[in-house]
Amino acid sequence: MLQKIKFGTDGWRGYVAEDYTFENVRRCAQGFAAYMVSTGKSNSWIVVGHDKRFMSENFALAVAEVLCANGLNVYLTNGATPTPVISYSTVNLKAAGAVNITASHNPPTDNGFKVRDSSGGAIDPQGLKKIEDLIPDSSESVKVMPAAQAEAEKRLVYFDPAPAYIEHLKDLIDLQPIKDAGLKVMVDTMWGNGAGWFPRLLAGGKTQVIEIHNQRNPSFPEMKRPEPIPPNIDVGLAETVKNGADVLLITDGDADRVGIGDEHGVFINQLQAYGLLAYYLLEVRGERGAIVKTLSTTSMLEKLGKIYNVPVYETGVGFKYVAPKFSETNALIGGEESGGYAFRGNVPERDGILAGLYFLDMMVRLKKSPSQLLAQLFSIVGPHYYDRIDTRFNGDPQAKIQRILTANPATIGGLKVTGLNTLDGYKFLLEDGGWLLIRFSGTEPIMRVYCETTHADRVAAILQDGLAIAGLN
Q1: Domains in the chain, please, with CATH?
Q2: The pTM is what?
Q3: Are 465 and 436 in contact (CB under 8 A)?
Q4: CA distance readout (Å), 201 to 78, 198, 231
Q5: CA separation, residue 214 to residues 145, 177, 192, 296, 340 (Å)
Q6: 232: number of CA atoms within 13 Å, CB side?
Q7: Chain-centroid distance, C-alpha 469
Q8: Which tens digits make up the pLDDT trace of 364-401?
Q9: How far apart are the first and last CA of the chain?
Q10: Which of 218-222, 316-320, 459-463 has the lowest mean pLDDT?
């Protein structure tokens, strides 16, 4: 019997050639196909796409062959495609769901298998559990239809997803003012699927776009992984200063997440970026609607919710929790600590391209630099400071959990503990409105320790206390 495949916060990810093999990818595809058939989706269409990692297009084709063999039809992207574009294509083509071959921000050794429903959003945890249960324990029961046969029977169709997505963007944002603004925009695509998108979208005006890391290179040189946080973005930040750019936009490996650097080459962290994007929609565009956030992201959102009289909903970590709540509440914005944000009017999926365009639009409308925008946000909600430490985890998770539960600290980083939230991990609430969160990663064997505080000089102490509570120092 082969290994049991489990879905984490965003699908299944594995080490290429060890557990992430063609055999196991086909098993995953068989489980997804069985799930679709069991929910009455026989003979429906499924969108299949992929990123630029090693062999991703081959794994995607293997998925298509399994889906077609199970009585489904496949729209297969004609090249590496951003995750949000795959999600939009699912809606635009009225497909029943999607499979995306990507490991997002993971190290170059990994690849992954994401699934989406007909809304283009993440399948809820109950649905993922059903897919897991339907993944066969061996490859003997996996059905495969050769691609040539599937094409001949018109079950497999290649398509270009870009034109429809670009037309859709025009309903969400007027690009002309950004094109005419004369900005110099630095873009780091992290060797991933975001390459070419901002130059294409912003061409034909005074604004200049300079891309780096925009070729295919699955080893991801000059970074540990295509995750839009330091130190992976250090080269991009340096290039921003070197080129005298007004802003740095960073898209992760599959372009569903965005990172931002200011005009001085200083990183605007993902919690600050979420606060700015929410402020943009509420104040600059004058829109109203719910905010959905994971418990690992910024408390600035609760403050904005009170100021603008909109509800704020908190979920567990991962878009499999955010997407259902986002759809249920017709939210204005939904997001998480990793730098992924979804927007009303778009699909319930993170979209690094649209997030980047919205940030540029805020710069243009308010006539402010990124550092000035952050200062304006802080003038409203107060300064907030954030950091995170990831530690590779070995040993018994239950022992670590027991240690955390019995710690019962009165103070953390010199701040009084006012409560404990166990929705997803262990979030210690602090007297200044900040927090410390300890939780296990849903995609890697890593324990994460995060914090946010209004005291810049307390960040290191809070994190060190968090490591001590978890027994990691």
Answers
A1: 12-162 (3.40.120.10), 172-381 (3.40.120.10), 385-469 (3.30.310.50)
A2: 0.94
A3: yes
A4: 19, 5, 28
A5: 34, 25, 7, 30, 20
A6: 25
A7: 28
A8: 999 999 999 999 999 999 999 999 999 987 767 777 77
A9: 38
A10: 316-320
pLDDT in tens, 223-265: 999 999 999 999 999 999 999 999 999 999 999 999 999 999 9
- Owner of token pair 């027991």: 402
Residue with tokens 């005419």: 180
Nearest to 250 by CA among 195, 169, 201: 195
Query: Between residues 451 and 394, which one has the greater pLDDT?
Result: 451
Dihedral sign, CA of 373, 376, 381, 382?
positive
CB neighbours of 428 closer than 8 A, spacing ≥ 6?
A: 409, 412, 417, 419, 420, 435, 436, 437
Contact 84, 353 (CB under 8 A): yes
Best CA proximity match to 425, nearest among 410, 416, 436, 414: 436
Write the CA distances from 131 to 95, 127, 316, integer angstroms: 18, 6, 20
From 91, 263, 245, select the one nearest 167 (Cα to Cα): 91
How deeply is 166 buried, as exposed, middle or buried, from its count of CB atoms within 10 A (0-12, 13-18, 19+)?
middle
Structure tokens at 430: 């602090």
Task: Using alpha carbons, select from 157, 247, 237 the residue that is nearest to residue 198.
Answer: 247
- What Rg value do the Cα atoms of the chain yield, rounded? 22
